[in-house]
Amino acid sequence: MIPSQQDVQQAFERVAPHVHQTPVLTSRLLDELSGASIFFKCENFQKMGAFKMRGAINAILQLPQADRAKGVVTHSSGNFAQAVSLAAKNLGIPAHIVMPNNAPQVKKDAVISYGGIIYESEATIAARQTMASQIQDKTGATFLHPSNDIDVILGQGTAAIELLQKHPSLQCIITPVGGGGLLAGSALAAKYFGSSVNVYGGEPLNADDAYRSFHSGEIQYNSQVHTIADGLRTHLGDKNFPIIKTLVTDIIRVEEQEIIAAMKLLWERLKIIIEPSCAVPFAALLKDKKTFAGKKVGIVLSGGNVDLTSLPF
Amino acid sequence: MIPSQQDVQQAFERVAPHVHQTPVLTSRLLDELSGASIFFKCENFQKMGAFKMRGAINAILQLPQADRAKGVVTHSSGNFAQAVSLAAKNLGIPAHIVMPNNAPQVKKDAVISYGGIIYESEATIAARQTMASQIQDKTGATFLHPSNDIDVILGQGTAAIELLQKHPSLQCIITPVGGGGLLAGSALAAKYFGSSVNVYGGEPLNADDAYRSFHSGEIQYNSQVHTIADGLRTHLGDKNFPIIKTLVTDIIRVEEQEIIAAMKLLWERLKIIIEPSCAVPFAALLKDKKTFAGKKVGIVLSGGNVDLTSLPF
User: How large a percentage of chain A has pLDDT more than 70?
Assistant: First the structure.
């Protein structure tokens, strides 16, 4: 179930020419505040503004040439829709994006700006899946899942590989955990490219399915998802959970106010724009300072696509 | 009146160990929008969040050892107060900061966090100057001017030197112009480290003293300064104006709405936090696209210290 070192290495080489090698930022003040030495991997500066570009590129590049030419389809209202649109555009193939009819116009505009073809469906998961299936039947396009797909997982992990190549002595890595693709990919990166790196997921308490899954050994679901971290409302899947279960050290849960405070602190001190979901790992570090005290900690800042006109502070 | 190549080179070497070599960002979308190839020098990531750290460090390092030990004094409510505080702290000397008694608490807190000693004065320029003189008399501290001081000017110019070293084929550089230190320093950098670089200042129309000074040949003043670009409300001085008059190509004026729109665009597309003043050179480029069409343009993003709870959009 666990991809090999060769799988991980090949994904890294495959993805590298198609993405930005994003910078790593540090802050003396945030180090003092947290008691750790933190290395922030800025995937908010990635193409289309989030790490999801990496998984989308890798998954499309892994398609057989004949399938690839027929395009790809996904249903998403978030960063993965933009990532698939831009990755497909850059590789010269069509991207069919099913979006709920209540998706904000700003998200539709972003998909359109990256060349995605939008199909509006009813706002239920079932309606979205049905429409995606219809598009597959009609066009021969391949369905891409945003997190429960080995090639997507391997692609997402390439951010942590870059981070470890630049800072090989990292002792911990923390990423957000929503669908689980980034956390699973980062855990694979740490296994093969780090030396004894402990990998943690940061998760909103209000959508703590990954925490409950990790501690029960079975995939759990959220009955409600009242969190500002809108990228972390989804649940794990059968492709990424075995990797997470085997390679991750723990999941740390944080409250809404902790997420907002961490987000504000990162904006103020790093002078960068990050999404609420993106602040969750730093909030987790601040919540559990003892675990990270005196250690070199890598944090993957996952994305920067945020509506500037409705900030939580 | 114009510092020599050796002066500029020595300032660069003097300042380098004490500041961040800040990253340079590019954006395909902003290039498409503007018709130019833009290289953004991110001084918002500088220590204390602005290029002013460079001038403060250089000016303090240039003081004779006996004077330096007695500390420095300035009157400012903005970035220069923070820069002098942090530079002095890093060099182990006291920084006396005169601030108007109506300065926002957040600005006082920033100065205190960097170790500056605050003295509250009445809010008039005369009262501030009087108090600064009293502190000089009492402590033997040296007064530092935020822009009209050759060592400050040489320090501010080191950002443009870094930019030109990384991108030697730049054809234009645009900086904001307020007191004139950054513009004069950047013009010196371009003269000695670039090859035929045209240097422009971007200025708010509502505080266009530098434009009027440049075109009249005499230092002009603002009768009102109703601009969101709060770092650009001051006027030129007798040390920097001769440099600007001789080496700068032109000053481009922009309206308030253009500044706000440019600021929002930089936040959204570069995913970085910049001050309103900092958006003025990019607004100037967008206003005068013809001048920069097809050219490689460096823009110094001057700082990122902004109150996140009162944004103009």
Answer: 100
CATH class of A5-50+150-301: alpha beta
Distance, CA of B135 to CA of B128 (rounded, Å): 11
Among candidates A264, A272, A309 on the partner chain, residue whose Cβ is nearest the Cβ of B308: A264
Which residue bears the tokens 């403060």? B56
User: What distance in Å separates the CA atoms of residue B48 and residue B89, rounded to the nearest whole number?
Assistant: 12
Residue A12 to residues A130, A146, A190, B46: CA-CA distances in angstroms?
33, 18, 13, 31
Q: pLDDT band for position A19 (50/70/90)?
A: very high
Residue B272 pairs in a beta bridge with A272
Looking at the structure, give the CATH architecture of the domain made up of residues B71-140: 3-Layer(aba) Sandwich (3.40)
Structural domain spans, chain B: 5-50+150-301, 71-140
Q: Which of A113, A271, A278 to mutate to test the interface with B (most CBs of B within 10 A)?
A: A271
Å between A104 CA and nearest CA of chain B? 17
pLDDT tens digits along A27-38: 999 999 999 999
Residue A25's closest chain B neighbor by CA? B45
Of B252, B270, B59, B37, give the one whose Cα is nearest residue B146. B59
A71-140 shares the fold of A5-50+150-301: yes
Q: Which of A23, A268, A304 sits opposite B308 (nearest CB)?
A: A268
How far is it, in rounded angstroms, from Cα B219 to Cα A282? 49
User: What would the mean pLDDT of B129-147 be, rounded to a whole number?
Assistant: 97
Both tokens of A295, joined, read 């250690």
Q: Is B308–A44 a contact, with Cβ atoms under 8 angstroms apart?
A: no
Q: What is the side-by-side order of every strand in the sheet holding A95-100?
A: A117-121, A95-100, A72-75, A142-143
* Angstrom distances, CA of residue B236 to CA of B4, B146, B180: 21, 11, 5
Sheet holding B95-100, edge to edge: B117-121, B95-100, B72-75, B142-143
